[in-house]
Every structure is written in structure tokens, then in C-alpha cells.
């Protein structure tokens, strides 16, 4: 793994600063400034990698989509004084476009397919913080209805879209869209619920992407390369993917359990049924990846369970399957 250059550290710092400005803003104009700073910091980070011939194309697609969303927010925000409902709908749709939620998800899988795994981690986690928190500022009955339909659509699109994929980056892109449906549902309940789900999702998805990055796995056929490293690494990937699918008693199950409880208390059973059905489909293609890595033919191995070079990576990912995390994550509820 190459070392970070000073310019990359600078742009990453300003990216985090833009996100901080957005969710601490007291006006839409300040929030827009934070979004623009975040965008202008992320574009150079996307363009840095020359190992992928599609990185420039992904950078351009991402810039155009984010610029469209930002311009719509800037144009709609002053109208809140006159037409509250229509303006809230326009801002909600712009934020859904910026975060890649269905039905405005069309740009997200192609962009993820053209970037590296570290950039996938950024676009799937940090880049979704500011738009999601801005949704908390849009308060109207119409925006709540749009969030409900966007959550259901994201669940269906994320589940069905990943079924026929053989490229690992696209699979995790559709997985991100599916998890976004749960995060949109959490936003409608309270901010603490969203925080718990987002932290768990960021932890689990980052661990999976780090494994993929460490061995440069971009296609199903490359999963057989895991066999030449260690059985422990394959087991780590297997359990991390199950954690992403929300299989109990792994870490990824805890936030879904809390959201299911909120659905039951609010008697939103139809909405919940869509999310649970999509979760079963996503678990299917997680199992397809993990079982492929476990049963592909491989040479006879004479290595230890974990080699010394993999100790740090495995140590990070082992946090996915520790139920001991549950009491600590529950502290966010109080």
C-alpha cells in the first residue's frame, strides 16, 4: 500500500472540515458552503489514482451529479420563506441525489466501479454524513413521505441490483444503497438511531473493503486468491460479510435490531416488511461471495492460521464479530 502524499492529507483534512461545517451550520447557505468544500476536496482524491483507467470518468460523473444537487439546494433554499412544502421536496430530492439513494441512485454504482477501494470507503461512509444530517433540517409532511418511499425503493433496488453482479465493487455499491434504506428509516425516528446504524455500517463495510483492497480483489474469480494466503483470512471475510447482512449475533445485527424495535413500536409493519425482505436478498449475495472464497479450488496450504503480515488486518476485522461491542454502542441511546 502506497504512502499518503502531503496533498492527499491536505485534501482529506478539508474534506472532513467541509463535512463538519455542513452539520454544524445554522443556515442553508453555510451548509451549502460545507457541501462545496467537501466536494472540491473529494474530486482531487478521486483523481489521484492512475491505476484505473476509469478514475477520470468517475471523477467527472461524481462532480456533475454533486454540482447538480448543490445548485438545486442553493436555488431552493431562499424559497422556503414563500413555498415551504415545494421547497422542502426539492431540497429532499437534491440530498437524496447527492447521497445516491434510490430512485436517484443511477450514478452511484458506475462511479464506485471506477475508483479504488480506499476511495470506495470514503464515498460509502464519510461522503454520506452531511447529506443525511441535512435531511434532519427538512421538516415537512411531504419530505417525510418522500423519505419513506425513498427508503422502500432503496431497499428493493439495493437487494435486486446486486443479485446479478460479479464485480465486487458493484456488489458493495448496491449493498450501500440497501443499507441507506435502513439509515433513512433511522433518520425518521431519531438522530441517535441513525448514529448507531451509521457507525456500525461504516465499521463493518470498511473492514470488508480493506480485505478486498489488501489483495486487490475486484471480481468473483479473484476470490480464489485468498486460498494462497490463509484460512483465517477467508474466515474473517466470511464473518465480515455475514455481519454486513445483519446475521445475529454479529455486530451488524445490533443496529438493525434497534430499528426493527422502533418499527414495531410505531406499527409500521408494511415498511418493515420491505426492509426485512430486502435484507434476506442482500444476505444471499453476501453468502455467494463468502462461500465462493471458501470453496474455490486452491493448492494445498501449509501455512499458519494467520501470517504475521495479516495480524493487524485481521485484528481490525475481528471487531465485527464481538457481541461485547453491544453494551458500548447502547451508550449512544442515552
Automatic annotation (TrEMBL):
GO terms of molecular function: NADH dehydrogenase (ubiquinone) activity
Domain NADH:quinone oxidoreductase/Mrp antiporter transmembrane stretches: 25-78, 86-281
Organism superkingdom: Eukaryota
Membrane topology type: Multi-pass membrane protein
Location relative to the cell: Mitochondrion inner membrane
GO BP annotations listed: mitochondrial electron transport, NADH to ubiquinone
Chain ranges passing through the membrane: 60-83, 89-108, 146-164, 195-214, 235-257, 269-291, 312-333
E.C. code: 7.1.1.2
Family statement drawn from the similarity comment of this UniProt entry: Belongs to the complex I subunit 2 family.
Protein name: NADH-ubiquinone oxidoreductase chain 2
Amino acid at each position: 500500500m502506497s504512502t499518503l502524499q502531503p496533498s492527499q492529507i491536505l485534501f482529506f483534512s478539508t474534506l472532513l472540515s467541509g463535512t463538519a461545517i455542513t452539520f454544524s451550520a445554522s443556515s442553508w447557505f453555510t451548509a451549502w458552503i460545507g457541501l462545496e468544500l467537501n466536494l472540491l476536496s473529494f474530486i482531487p482524491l478521486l483523481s489521484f489514482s492512475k491505476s484505473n483507467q476509469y478514475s477520470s470518468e468517475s471523477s467527472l460523473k461524481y462532480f456533475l451529479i454533486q454540482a447538480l444537487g448543490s445548485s438545486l439546494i442553493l436555488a431552493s433554499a431562499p424559497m422556503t420563506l414563500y413555498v415551504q412544502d415545494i421547497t422542502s421536496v426539492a431540497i429532499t430530492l437534491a440530498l437524496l441525489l447527492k447521497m445516491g439513494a434510490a430512485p436517484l441512485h443511477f450514478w452511484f454504482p458506475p462511479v464506485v466501479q471506477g475508483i479504488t477501494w480506499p476511495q470506495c470507503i470514503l464515498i460509502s461512509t464519510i461522503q454520506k454524513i452531511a447529506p443525511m444530517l441535512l435531511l434532519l433540517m427538512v421538516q415537512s409532511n411531504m419530505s417525510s413521505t418522500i423519505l419513506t418511499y425513498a427508503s422502500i425503493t432503496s431497499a428493493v433496488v439495493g437487494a435486486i441490483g446486486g443479485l446479478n453482479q460479479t464485480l465486487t465493487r458493484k456488489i458493495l455499491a448496491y449493498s450501500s444503497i440497501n443499507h441507506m434504506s435502513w439509515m433513512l428509516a433511522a433518520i425518521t425516528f431519531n438522530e441517535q438511531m441513525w448514529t448507531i446504524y451509521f457507525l456500525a455500517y461504516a465499521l463493518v463495510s470498511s473492514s470488508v473493503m480493506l480485505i478486498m483492497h489488501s489483495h486487490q480483489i475486484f471480481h468473483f474469480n479473484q476470490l480464489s486468491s485468498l486460498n494462497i494466503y490463509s484460512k483465517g483470512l477467508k474466515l474473517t471475510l466470511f464473518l465480515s460479510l455475514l455481519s454486513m447482512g445483519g446475521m445475529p449475533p454479529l455486530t451488524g445485527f445490533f443496529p438493525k435490531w434497534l430499528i426493527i424495535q422502533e418499527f414495531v413500536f410505531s406499527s409500521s409493519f408494511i415498511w418493515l416488511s420491505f426492509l426485512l425482505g430486502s435484507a434476506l436478498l442482500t444476505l444471499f449475495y453476501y453468502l455467494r461471495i463468502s462461500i465462493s472464497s471458501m470453496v474455490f479450488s486452491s493448492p494445498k496450504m501449509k501455512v499458519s492460521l494467520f501470517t504475521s503480515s495479516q495480524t493487524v488486518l485481521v485484528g481490525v476485522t475481528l471487531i465485527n464479530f464481538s457481541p461485547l461491542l453491544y453494551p458500548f454502542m447502547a451508550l449512544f441511546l442515552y
